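Summary for the funding panel

The consortium committed to producing paired sequence-structure records for every protein in the target list. Below we show the first two records in order, beginning with the earlier of the two.
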Amino acid sequence: MRHNFVKYRAIAATTAVVLLLLILTPSIRAEAKFVKVSMPDLGQHSSGWCWVTAAANSFYWFSQHGYPELLDDPATFGADKKYITDPLRSCPGCPSGGYYRLLEEICLSTWHDSPPAGDGDGERDPGETGYAFFEAVATNHDYICGLRAFIAKQDARLEVEEIWGATFQDYQNLLKKCEGIILWLESYGGAGLNHFVTGVSFDTTVVPNTINVSDPWTPSAPDHNNDLDHDPPTYDTWEVVTGDPFVIGPQQDITGGPKKGQDINVGKIICICKRSTVVFTDPPKIKSKVIGETVTVNINVSNVNDLYGWQAGITFNPHVLECTGYYEGEFLQRGGPTYWIYPTPTWDNTKGIAYTHGCTLLGSIPGVSGSGQLGYLTFEVIGTGVSDLHLINVKFVDSNVEVIQHEVVDIYTVSLGSPEFSVETISNLTAISGPPYLLFSGLLNHTFSSEEKAITFDFVTPYDNFYIVTIPKTLLSCANLSDWTVEVDGEPVPFVPIGSSTQTSIYFTYHNSSHEVKITGTTVFGEGSPVGGIYIPVNKLGLLAPYIGLTILLTVAVMTVVYVKKRKRHTEINS
C-alpha cells in the first residue's frame, strides 16, 4: 500500500512539468506558409453586413469542398444550388446588380425569420422592413446561434465554435485544417470596431508575419463584390503585430476605421468546423431478454483525425445490468504500441458507473485517423427492462497534445408500455484533465413527465457547450415551433427549434458547471416513466474525479518512453 501511494504521488508531482514540456515542444509538422485556396471574396453590400458576408465566404467554400447541401433550398428536392442560381436580390445603389440569396438565408436564420425593421439606407428606422434588416448588427449570441441554425436547416455536417482570446497560433492551426475562420476585430486604438473578416492565409517567412483576409469593406466603403471564384486572388494583407494576444495591423488606411500603423485587437475566432468526429456507444441501449446473458457494448469513434489519446466512462442502469469488464479496443493499436489505463475501482455496479478508462499511443509517432472501436465493455443482464448507456468524461487529444473537438451522441429511452421512444442529444461535451479541475462531463438523470409534458436532464461540463435535443413528435410535440419552451435551472433560455414531419430538434447553448434542463411541449402521447439509469446527485459527481484523468494517462505514456530511452542508452554505454 505504501509503495503504491509513493508511486502515484510521484506521477502526480511530475504531471505539470511533463505537460509544460509537451506544450513547449515545437511541432515537427509546423508550416511556415499556408493558403486556403479558392476562398471567395464577397462584399457586404451594406454598412452593417460584414458578419453575414464573412460567414457566406466560408459556407460557399465548404459547398465546393464536400458540403454541396449548403447551397440547396431545403423546401425543394435535390441539389438545386438555388442560394446561388436564384436571381440576385436587389439592394439600393448596388453596382453589381444585387446579392446572392445565400446571404439572405444566413440572415433569416440569425433573426429566426423575423428580421428587425429598416429601409436599407444604412439606418434602422421604426416600422420599416425589407432589405435593411441586414443593417442590423447581430449580437454575439444571435450570430453564433444563427450560424448553427443555418447549418442545421441545410443538414450539413458542420459545427460552430468560438475561441475567445485566440492567438496567432490558434489561427494557424485551424487554417491548416481548412476550417472556416471568421476573425472578430474587436477594437483599435481604444475605439470599438466590431468588424468581421474571413481568414485566408498566413506567412511566417516574412518579418513581420502576415495574414491574408477577405475583407468585405473596401478602404473607403462597403464593397459589392459577388466574387465566388476569386481568381486571381487579391486579398487584403495585414501584419501580425503580436501573436498572443493576437494583434494585427492594416497596410493601408481604412476610412472610418484604423489607419496604417494602428493596432487591431482580434477579440475572438469563430470557427466553422467540419463536424467529423463523433463518439457513440454501439448499441446505444440494452433491452434485457435473458437473465444471466452476457452483452458487449462498444465505444466507437467515427472520422477522427490524428487521435493519440482518449478517455471515457459510461453510466448504465444497475437494476438491469452489471458491469463485468472494460477493455481496450483495436483502433489506437493501428498506430503502434499503446498504454491502457484503468482506475481502481474500475466500476460501481451499485451506482451504475463504469469509471473513466483511457488509452494512449507511446512515443513520438503520429496519431490514428479514421473510424473504429476505441474500447468495449461487457455486462451481465441481472434484471428486466431497458438500460441506456450514457458516455461521460469524454476527451480526445492529438499527437500535439491538443484537444480534438468532437460530438457525443446520447440516447434516452422513454417507455410508454408497449411503444418506446428514443430522444437523441448531440453535444460537444468535453472533459478537463488533471488537477486542480474536476474530471467530469456528461448528461445524467433523464426523465419524462406526461403530466408536465416535459423532458428533463442534467448536464455537467467545465466548458460552454451546445446541445441539440431531437424529440419524436409521437412522444412530445407542439402545434407551432414557437410554443416550445426551454429552461435551465428554472429560467427560460434562448433556443432554436427546427421541425420536420416526424421530429423536432431543439438547439441551445449554455455555460459551464452543473445545470438542469427542462424542455416542455404542448401535446403528449401516453403516460411514461423514466428508464435507463438511477439518479446520481450532481453535486457529488466530483467524487469521481480522482479516479483518472488524461493528464495522468499522457504522463505515464511519456514517462514510459523516457524510461525506455534511458534504459536503452544505459545498456549501450555499458556494452
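The next record, for a separate protein in the list, is shown here:
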Amino acid sequence: MEHIVSCIEVNGAIQASPEILRVNPGDTILWKNQLSEAYRATNFSPQDPPLFGEEVIEIPAGLPSAPVLVEASPRVGESFEYHYLLEPVNPATPSVDPVIVVESPANPPQ
C-alpha cells in the first residue's frame, strides 16, 4: 500500500499531514511537498531496526519525493514508533517532528 505525507502550511506553520502515519512492512511512503521550499525527512529515531534503507529522504519544492519502502518488521502484536524531522533545506525555516508507526502485518493500519 502506498501512503502519502503532505508537507503543508497551516496558519503560517509548516506541518506534516498526517502528523502520525500508521503503516505496515512492505508499504511505501511518498512525501508530497506543497510548499515553495525544499525539505528533507531525516533523523529517523530509533535507528535500530531501520525504518528505510535511506537515512535522508529529499523532498523537492512543489514536488513529491521518490517512494521509499518500509523495511522495519515488528512481530505480531507489536509496533515500532519512529520520530523524525521534516527539515527545510534552508536552515532559517523551522523544522517539524512527525511520527511513523509501523504495525505488524496482523495489525493493519486504521
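Regarding this second record: The chain has one domain: 2-103. The domain at 2-103 is CATH 2.60.40.420 (Immunoglobulin-like).
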